[in-house]
Structures are given as structure tokens and as C-alpha cells.
Write a structure and sequence with these properties.
Layout (H helix, E strand, L loop, with lengths): L12 E5 L2 H23 L2 E5 L6 H8 L8 E5 L1 E3 L9 H8 L9 E2 L9 H11 L8 E4 L17 H4 L8 E5 L6 E5 L1 H4 L4 E7 L1 H10 L19 E5 L1
Helix pairs in contact: 1-2
């Protein structure tokens, strides 16, 4: 099965690439172009990305793009609640692979907060993210289980996190794998992105996407909350 065989909602665009390197370059060009447009229109741009291992090639390709990086604000859709020098830290990943060279001039809006417990960290992050401008470009990933950001199927607080008009911008979440303690932006923030992009790789994730496009509960496959216009989907084998 290829992504061209999927029946996509109206306004959702999907494109296939030969390999991860080609997809990373194409995604970097698209993101850079959208950030330039935002800067021209509003004087600054806000980019929110996802962590994990998958985006590394994209981060490195984007870092090579010629942009007025000092006018770009970068943040994360979700974060593992570990110190920023921890091997599992999404912020550390962004600093290492994206914010280098000229791109180091971008401002990083940290989601991680030092606190006595995960719930307190989420409250601190929620207050801080009141100052996050509307997202210009959002780059999401997706797990084989249909999660995106740290919106895991049937997780505690998932219903609250999927409220489009919720009062909370950041919620504590528990992942099924280590490190389990996570912070995630909610749909009330992520769903307002001007340009949402979804990047996935491999047949397993394509099969999950196909399942998510079928009718069903959002709680069982949270990616469903994002599968509508103006989403653009990037996929490679």
C-alpha cells in the first residue's frame, strides 16, 4: 500500500518520498518557506516540532536553510520530563541537531520545567505557554499506536487534552514506554497551527494512518484529531 491509495479528507495533502533523506530535505524546504512567509507577514515566526529519533534528519536539513533565524521562535509539541542534559530530552535533541550554525540564533521556548512533581511542572509550563504566539508551522510525528505529541490512546487526561477550547495549554501525560512522565501541548494550542505537517515513515505507520482515516473514536487513535484541512502529510518507506 502507498499513501496515494488512501482516501484523504478534503483539503489534506499527502506526498510520498523515496527515502528518509529525501523526505527530510523536502520537509525542511516546506517548513523554511512557510517560516519566511510568516516573518514577512508578521515580523516573526513560531515553529513547534516533535521529538524522538525520527526528526533528526529533518532538523539537520532545516538548520542548513537560509532564514532570518533570530526572528524564529522554536518550541516542542511535547517533552519527556527529564533534565535537559538527559539522553531522552527532546530539548537536548533540538539543541544538538537544529539549533546549530546560523540556526542557533533562533529562540528556544522551553517546555521542560523544574518542579517537585510532574503535575507541578505541567502547571508551570501551562503558565509559561500563555506567552507562546500562535503556531505558524507545526511538525508532528505519529507512533504505531496512533499517538502524536504525547497524546497517547486512552491515557488519563486525554479527554481534557483533546478539548479544542480547553483552558489548559499544557498537561501532564503518562506514556506506555520509558521515560513515562511527559508534558504535552494540548489540542487547544496545537489545533490552531496555521500550517500543520505530519511526517511518518514505514509501512506500519502508514497502516496506522489508514486505520485512523476510518471512522472511530479519537481516544483510540489520537492522530484522528489532526486529520483535516489544512494538514500536509509527508511519508516515505
Amino acid at each position: 500500500m502507498g499513501i496515494s491509495e488512501l482516501e484523504l479528507p478534503q483539503g489534506v495533502i499527502a506526498c510520498s518520498h523515496a527515502d528518509a533523506g529525501q523526505m527530510a530535505e523536502a520537509l525542511a524546504l516546506r517548513v523554511a518557506g512557510a517560516l519566511r512567509q510568516a516573518i514577512e507577514a508578521r515580523g516573526s515566526a513560531t515553529l513547534v516540532v516533535s521529538g524522538g529519533r525520527s526528526p533528526v534528519a529533518f532538523f539537520e536539513a532545516l538548520a542548513q536553510q537560509s532564514l532570518p533565524w533570530a526572528q524564529v521562535l522554536v518550541s516542542l509539541a511535547d517533552e519527556r520530563w527529564v533534565p535537559v542534559n538527559h539522553a531522552s530530552s527532546n530539548e537536548a535533541l533540538v539543541r544538538r541537531h537544529l539549533l546549530r550554525g546560523a540556526a542557533a540564533e533562533a529562540r528556544l521556548f522551553s517546555l521542560y520545567q523544574v518542579a517537585g512533581c510532574l503535575e507541578q511542572a505541567a502547571e508551570l509550563a501551562d503558565a509559561a505557554f500563555a506567552d507562546l504566539p500562535q503556531i505558524d508551522v507545526l511538525v508532528l510525528g505519529m507512533g504505531d499506536d496512533g499517538h502524536t505529541a504525547s497524546l497517547f490512546p486512552h491515557s488519563p487526561l486525554l479527554e481534557q487534552a483533546l478539548q479544542t477550547e480547553g483552558s489548559r495549554r499544557v498537561l501532564p501525560m503518562l506514556a506506555p514506554v520509558e521515560p513515562r512522565q511527559r508534558l504535552t501541548l494540548t489540542l487547544s494550542v496545537l489545533g490552531r497551527a496555521r500550517l500543520p505537517l505530519l511526517a511518518i515513515q514505514g509501512p506500519a505507520k502508514l497502516a496506522t494512518l489508514a486505520e485512523a482515516l476510518e471512522p472511530g473514536e479519537v481516544a483510540s487513535l489520537p492522530i484522528r484529531a489532526f486529520l483535516h484541512s489544512p494538514l500536509e502529510i509527508y511519508w516515505c518507506h
